[in-house]
Every structure is written in C-alpha cells, then in structure tokens.
Amino acid sequence: MVDRKWWTLTAVAVATFMLLLDITIVNVALPSIQRSLHSSFSDLQWVVDAYALTLAAVLLVSGSIADLIGRRLIFVIGLVVFSSASLLCGLALNPLMLTSSRALQGIGGAMMFATSLALIANAFRGPERATAFGVIGAVIGAAVAVGPLLGGVLTDSLGWEWIFLVNVPIGVLAVVFTLRNVAESRDPSPSGIDFSGAITFSGSLALLVYALIRGNSDGWTSPLILSFLIGSGVALLAFVTIEARRRHPMLDLSLFRKPAFVGASATAFFIAASMFSMFLYISLYLQNVLDYSPLKTGLVYLPVTLLSFVVAPLAGKLSARLAIRIFLAGGLVLVGIALVLMGGRQLGDTWVGLLPGFILAGIGIGMINPPLASAAVGVVEPARSGMASGINNTFRQVGLATGIAYLGAIFQSSVQSKLGNLLAGTPAAPHVSQIAQGVSAGGSRQVIAGVPAPLRATVSHAANQAFISSLNELFIVASVTAFVGAVLAAVFVRQRDFVGQSPEVQAAAPATA
After folding, report:
1. Among 160, 166, 469, 494, whose Cα sits 20 to 30 Å from the Cα of 413?
2. What is the DSSP letter of 329?
3. What angle do CA 179, 183, 185 make, to 5 degrees?
4. How confident is the model at residue 508, as a pLDDT?
C-alpha cells in the first residue's frame, strides 16, 4: 500500500502544475482572445496582470489563514476557486468577464501555492523532504517548459477557451483526491491574520498597475491617473507602517536588513519585469506580424523553455559549491544580453532572428531559478523560511504585473507616435489614434480590413513597421531592466549573509515561473 505522504505529494504536484501552467500558457492564446472578444490593448494586459496581481496580493495572507484554520482546507478551497474561475474564463463573453475570472483564478492559485509547500513539509521528514521538494521543482520546470506549446496545441485545435476549461476536470479530481488522501495540518501557534496589511498591499499594487495601464489613454496628468498614483503611494506607506508595528506581520520587514535577502527579492522582481513580461509582446509579434499560428508560436518558444528546464538542475547543484551571486547576477546579465540580441527586428525577418537571444535567455533563466529559491530561504532561520519563500514569490508576481504594465505604457505610446509619423499626409492620418489602438492590441489584420481598399497597403506597412520599431524599443528597455537587476544582485547578495540550514530547508522553496 502506498504511503499517504506520497499521495500528498501527488496532489500538490498536480495543483502546482495547474496554477503555474496558467502563467505561461496564456501568452500564446492572447491574439486569439483579442480577435474573439475584440479586446483592447489594456484588456490583454489585464488578462495577464489580473492573475498576477491577485496571486501576489493574496499569497502571504493565505498562508496565515491556512496556519490558523487548516492547510488542507485552504488548499481544497483554492482548488475549488481556481477550477470554478477556470470554467468562467472559458465561458467568458467579453473582456471584463475574462479579466474578473482571471483575478478569481489568481486568488485560488494563491491559496494553493501558499499551502502546498507547508503540506509537503508536514508530510515528509529528513532526506525524503528534500526529494519531495525536488519533485515539485521538476514539476514547476515542466509547467514552464510545456506551457507555451500546450497553449498553442489547445488554441489551434479546440479554441482559446480550452486553455482554461482543461483545468476543470483536473481540478475536480484533485479536490476529491485531496480530501481522501491528504491529512489536515495547522500551526500549533498561529500568529493571526494581517487583514490590514493585505488590504493596503493589494490596494497599492492594484492602483499602481491600473495607472500604468490606463496612463496613455486617460492622460498621465489627468486627475484620475494622478489620484491613482498618489493613492498607490499612500497605500504603500500605510502598508509599511502597519507591518513595522505589528508583532506578527504578514511581511516581516526585518528580513530586508540582510542585504542578500534584498538582492534575492530584487532578482525575483527584475527577472519577471524584464524577460517574463516581454513574452506577452513577443507573442503578439509572432502571431500578428509574422502571422504564425498559436501552435507554431508555442514551438518557437521551445528553445527558451527547454534550455531553462535542462540548465536549472545543473545550476542548483553548482550553487551549492559556488557563490550564489554568480548565478543570480550572471543569469540576469545573460537575460539582458539576450534581450539586446532579440532587438533589431525588421520587416521580413522570421523567428530565426530571435533564436540566439532565446538560447541565451533559456540559459539565463535556468541559472537563476534554483539558486534564487535557495537564496530566499538561505539567509533566514529555518522557522522563517516559509515567509521568506512567500515574499520572494510575491516579488516575482509584482515584477510580472508592473513589468507588463510599464512596458505596455511605453509600447502603446511608441506605436501611436510612429504611426502618426508614418501616416502623416495620408487619408488615414485622422484615424491614427484608432489604428494605433488596434495595432497595439495585436489586431492589425482587423484594422487593415476596416480601411478602404486603396489605403490597405499603406496602412499595413505602417502598422507592421510601427509595431516592430516599438517592439525593438521594448527589448532595449527590458534589457536595461535586467542589467539593473544584475547589478543589484551582484552588490547585495553576499555569501556571509547565509545561515546554516539542512538540505531540505534549502530546497524548501522551488521558484515559480
């Protein structure tokens, strides 16, 4: 008879695969979503950001609630919420319904992710715990590796709705399996729930991302955008004040007194804000400028995903012998160089021009992930490793949400400016703003189909040229973002900050995508 702890590992592995798959699978389907739901550029940004925002906002507080009322209970509730939200995503009739459902998905994902490692830690002891965490690390790598390809297969064969609907039967089975085979556990000395911290943190993040996404359309100096930016700053200040005064805070600010923890958190933020955020815009380029299918787009991403999957375990082993800053800073440098190499796109290029950058990016991402997980928990005492891991993964989701938003603000402004120059003096000039909105969202074909036949060639050339030129600017901005992260990692991650921990504790926080 199979030991119950291995059933626990199976349940956690399935849930982890689902929730991380939904981070990587969506990018490939975005152009199809845009055409089906007639989404604007900001709508597409929210499809990704709504999930990342709520996951980041709810992750830490979910752990506190689980410690108090039961980890298995919160894990199962998370599965139910995630699966129900996936069904709503697949049935979405408009962008608002899809975005709202994605936000609900993120809440369910946060509840699962916050409890998954604690369930494993409670079920396993000694060397077996390290083995269990290693399995979860492999599952995470697999989800990242197959996400784009699976997204392409499902979108091409069944429609974009099925990248969400496929979660429903798996989620139902996972709920039944968990209730029958996973033991309940709680913290014998729970610290309470920091609702005020959760509200101010999520409010600050949501206001900032909304302002970044809507800034171009509403005007950066408009009363609404200014009030959102100021409100975000006030909420952040309130959050820091609350956390500094609480005896048991949701986010222990004292962790940031160790430079290595600052460096690890910065690495998590900047890798997400640079490379992972760019995948959205690369997907729009591949499908709407190069006219690739979702399946071909998924195949194009294989050099990145497979290389990161292969390099990650090697980096994990080597990081036990070499300074971790080598992997964190070095990986971000490689990602920065990769983004530079991806730039310089021109009309008539194919995906092959992206290949050198994709290869370096795959190696860089693989170098970062396992050492980053070890760094996050390696600078704190074992009793605080759960919070340290949660903070690190929160920074990653915040980086993704803000990265997509600020890169999108630059991209949208650039497309409109370039289209204005390219179409100046033509009959299409009065409609530049409308055309730019469609081009930014990856809807060039619909825009071109809607203009008079004599203008289609001119508008088509201008639309593709504006998109490519603006994408090249994003590659440079994203590369600078990665290089800034590399500098911070090199400066702050010091080996002397690490405390002695057992191998299973060091392995206790597999990094997310």
Report:
1. 160
2. H
3. 120
4. 46
Alpha helices in 124-276 (DSSP H): 127-157, 162-165, 167-181, 195-218, 223-245, 259-271
CA gyration radius, the chain: 22
| 281 pLDDT tier (thresholds 50, 70, 90) | very high
Task: Report pLDDT digits (tens) over 69-78.
Answer: 888 999 999 9
Q: For residues 124 and 505, give the distance between their C-alpha atoms in angstroms, rounded to a whole number.
A: 12
Residue type, 114: A
d(CA 467, CA 407): 13
Neighbours of 491 (CB within 10 A): 14
Domain borders along the chain are 1-181, 195-249
Q: Which residues contact 497 (CB under 8 A, 6 or more apart)?
A: 258, 259, 260, 261, 379
The answer to whether the beta carbons of residues 87 and 168 sit under 8 Å apart is yes
Chain length of the chain: 513
CA distance 500 to 153: 45
Task: Report the b/e string of 125-162 with b at 16+ CB within 10 A.
Answer: eeebbbebbbbbbebbbbbbbbbbbbbbbbbbeeebbb
**pLDDT tens per residue across span 437-486:** 777 776 667 777 677 777 778 888 888 899 999 999 999 999 999 999 99
Neighbouring residues of 390: CB distance < 8 A, sequence distance ≥ 6:
59, 60, 63, 114
How far apart (Å, rounded) are the C-alpha atoms in residues 263 and 286?
A: 34
- Residue whose C-alpha is closest to residue 120's, from 178, 192, 193, 168: 178
At 384, list the tokens. Answer: 């605080």
* Model confidence pLDDT, tens digit, residues 305-314: 889 888 888 8
Task: State the first-to-last Cα distance of the chain, in angstroms, to the nearest integer.
Answer: 34
The string of DSSP letters for 335-359 reads HHHHHHHH----TT--GGGGHHHHH
Cβ burial, residue 291 (10 Å; 0-12/13-18/19+): exposed
Q: CA angle 386-388-390, nearest 5°?
A: 70
Is residue 184 classed exposed, middle or buried when 0-12, 13-18 and 19+ CB atoms within 10 A define those classes? middle
Assess contact for 444 and 288: CB atoms under 8 A.
yes
CATH number of 1-181: 1.20.1250.20
